[in-house]
Design goal:
Layout: H1 2-49, H2 57-67, E1 73-77, E2 87-94, E3 99-109, E4 112-119, H3 120-194, H4 201-225, E5 234-237, H5 238-249, E6 254-258, E7 265-268, H6 270-286, E8 291-298, E9 302-309, H7 331-334, H8 343-353, E10 357-363, E11 365-373
Helix pairs in contact: 1-3, 3-4, 5-6, 6-8
Residues 279, 283-284, 287, 309, 311-314, 322, 327-330, 334, 339-344, 366 line the site of adenosine-5'-diphosphate.
């Protein structure tokens, strides 16, 4: 898992670096270009403001101050102006220490021509500062992205690890549940084969019973792994649905109802919801309850169904695992009570499909509180 985490992080770090470097490159290029454009615009504006007939040192200083272009060379040309090309040009001059790039703008204002020049290098200083600031900002963004990425990968890998653990647990539970009946079947067949001449009816019945047990487990597992959808969703009156279940289980447990005057309508799959609530009722019957109470409450945008029994209850420390596959809270009394620990996982799956939340609490008996979004 650690290797996976590190590898994922390295790849993430490289990808983020490339993305930031790409955008930084575009930014630098764009900045340089826009700065050049800016400088060119300034030279053109200066040229338009200069009056070649009255140009003097004072005017030069004023203009330089106004446009902040340093240094600024202005040349007023009177002779041979027809040889001059109007527009921008750049020249490189080799100075004693450095090469200097000169930008010149030439404009013809007959009978004069004006040449305005400036050095790129001095004007470039500003852009250098902006470049450094932008590089530092990019570096900080990179560090923050790495930190957030690492945190994200850490939570992701924890989640994956947990899923793996649950899967492993699930596999071992399935094998364990199937191993016992299979071993019983094998030993019964061995006995039957050894006593060929005797009547094996009793043994065959016992084998059939074990096969039925396996069948039930596999059916429940298939039910759990099936992908249900909301195709069969319809408007369901919860009050009506509970009365239908009352008719089914009447006589096995005493029912109590606390319903108000509201409509308790939700959108759902009636067959699946009946399976879920039946599972809860059957548990109450199995785990020693003589009475089960149904309470319906309508709030602003949800309907709350509480199902409470007066059975043996579940110890508090076992409640967090109660919806896990194959989990049975009390191994000792469970030995005498049939079950695979899949019922409540099925309940949870069905309620998830309905975007309903389920909570369980146990004070004396057990109480399930189910919150449905109202239709
Ligand atoms: N109403 C209840 N009263 C007491 N214990 C319960 C009740 N419902 C569920 N349980 C406990 O929760 C466990 C899981 O329930 P479930 O998933 O339906 O499995 P199963 O009924 O097959 O054992 C049960 O084994 C039981 O220990
Ligand atoms: Mg059950």
């Amino acid at each position: 898992m650690n290797n996976f985490k590190n590898e994922l992080f390295y790849k993430y770090a490289i990808v983020v670096f490339l993305i930031i470097a790409f955008f930084e490159g575009i930014l630098m290029f764009g900045m340089k270009k826009s700065f050049d454009m800016h400088l060119k615009d300034k030279l053109a504006l200066i040229a338009s403001e200069i009056d070649p007939q009255n140009f003097n040192q004072n005017q030069l200083l004023k203009i330089q101050h106004k446009y902040r272009v340093f240094p600024l060379f202005v040349q007023i040309i009177k002779n041979n102006i027809s040889n001059l090309q109007p527009g921008y040009s750049t020249n490189i001059i080799n100075g004693p220490l450095t090469k200097e790039k000169i930008l010149t703008y030439t404009i013809i204002k007959k009978p004069y021509a004006i040449k305005i020049s400036t050095l790129y290098s001095t004007n470039d200083d500003k852009i250098e500062i902006i470049k450094i600031i932008s590089l530092i900002a990019s570096f900080i963004i990179y560090l923050i992205s790495l930190f957030i990425g690492w945190k994200f990968i850490e939570t992701l890998s924890k989640e994956i690890e947990l899923t793996f653990k649950r899967l492993k647990n699930f596999n071992s539970n399935v094998s364990h549940e199937l191993k016992t009946p299979l071993a019983i079947i094998k030993s019964k067949i061995d006995v039957a084969l050894m006593n060929k001449e005797k009547n094996c009816d009793k043994l065959l019945y016992e084998i059939l019973e074990e096969i039925e047990y396996i069948n039930e487990i596999t059916e429940k597992l298939l039910f759990l792994t099936k992908n249900y959808n909301n195709k069969n969703f319809e408007k369901i009156d919860l009050e009506e649905l509970i009365f239908e279940l009352y008719e089914k289980y009447e006589g096995k447990i005493e029912f109590k109802f606390h319903f108000g005057e509201d409509d308790y309508e939700i959108l759902g799959d009636k067959i699946l919801l009946k399976i879920a609530i039946s599972n809860i009722i059957e548990n109450s019957i199995k785990y020693g309850a003589s009475q089960i109470e149904f309470t319906l409450q309508k709030l602003k945008n949800k309907i709350i169904l509480s199902i409470k029994d007066n059975g043996v209850g579940i110890p508090k420390e076992k409640l967090p695992f109660i919806f896990d596959e194959f989990y049975r809270a009390d191994e000792s009394h469970n030995k005498n009570i049939k079950g695979f620990g899949l019922g409540l996982s099925i309940v949870k799956n069905i309620l998830n499909l309905h975007k309903a939340k389920i909570k369980i609490q146990s004070k004396g008996g057990v109480e399930f509180i189910i919150e449905f979004p109202s239709s």
